[in-house]
Specification:
Immunoglobulin-like, 13-stranded mixed β-sheet, 5-stranded antiparallel β-sheet, 25 strands, 52% strand
């Protein structure tokens, strides 16, 4: 059995974990990203959302893991149920210097037969709007000549940290059983693992990594965008316009980025730069010289 060390969530995260629905029906778990020990590149206000397939509901919920129960299974033609399909999930973090594919492989826990592996896109939402997708990777494996499956999805949330979600599907426990009267155990478990993976998303701003700056409206306006390390918009964060005076920089205007991460300011001639901030994180544009007069203020 292969176990890989990973950074676990803090015990205090339980109070920050919210649920959208209780049984019956789909369960949605929203877990605050709070690695322990803390990782300097991870801002507050990030959440990873995991959700069960529609046929499953919650049976257990812990700070960084949980269990879902699904439909009945039975031998083909049997009148009575033999049990219910299950999914156990776990969220973790891996700070080792490795690519995303290797991170997914390193966090498998069963020595089973690989079924498939591939790149996948994880949606990134801020304020209910998708700002981009994160390049992730998954590996799906299955027990030899049996039904149980394991899937690990990994994706970067900073330049030095991956998140991963592990799904373990142990029931139905063999191909002697069928779900909904017709779907063999192994096919059901693999399909539900892939469906669960497709529901993962990241919520919240990542730190600003780059700020662009350029002129608009004939030089009367300075504008640009604040972007994270994935080139996704950093939404609703403070952005300050600083003007060079001698060898120093002085803040002259302040605003917030738009829903697409943009900003604009009307300016007078001078040399400016823009600084976007998210808590202790900030990114600064290159200096830019505005040559034509405008009416000072936000654009």
């Amino acid at each position: 059995m292969r176990w890989a060390a990973f950074v676990t969530l803090t015990a205090g995260v339980l109070g920050a974990l919210s649920v959208a629905q209780f049984a019956p029906g789909q369960a949605t778990e929203r877990v605050r990203v709070a690695p322990n020990p803390p990782v300097a590149s991870v801002p507050p206000g990030l959440f990873i959302v995991v959700a069960s397939p529609n046929d499953y509901s919650r049976t257990a919920l812990r700070p960084s893991s949980g269990s879902w129960v699904g439909p009945e299974y039975r031998p083909r033609g049997a009148p009575n149920s033999w049990g219910h399909a299950t999914i156990d999930w776990e969220l973790g973090f891996d700070g080792r210097q490795s690519d995303t594919e290797r991170t997914a492989l390193a966090n498998l826990t069963r020595d089973w037969i690989e079924d498939q592996r591939a790149g996948v896109s994880v949606p990134h939402f801020v304020g209910g709007r998708m700002v981009g997708t994160i390049p992730g990777f998954f590996v799906l494996q299955a027990e030899r000549q049996s039904a149980p499956s394991e899937l690990v999805l990994a994706f970067p949330i900073s330049r030095d940290l991956h998140a991963f979600v592990r799904y373990l599907l142990l029931r139905p426990e063999s191909n002697d059983f069928y779900v909904n009267g017709s779907v063999q155990g192994s096919s059901w478990n693999r399909g539900q693992a892939l469906l669960s993976m497709s529901k993962v998303k990241l919520e919240g701003n990542l730190p600003p990594s780059a700020v662009s700056i350029r002129s608009r409206r004939g030089g009367r306006v300075i504008a640009g965008f604040a972007l994270d390390f994935l080139h996704h918009a950093v939404v609703g964060v403070p952005v300050a316009l600083e003007r060079r005076t001698g060898s120093a920089w002085r803040r002259v205007f302040r605003a917030r980025t738009s829903r697409v991460g943009g900003y604009s300011f009307r300016v007078e001639p001078g040399t400016y730069r823009a600084r976007a901030s998210l808590g202790r994180f900030s990114a600064v544009s290159r200096p830019f010289r505005a040559r034509k007069p405008g009416r000072p203020g936000t654009g």
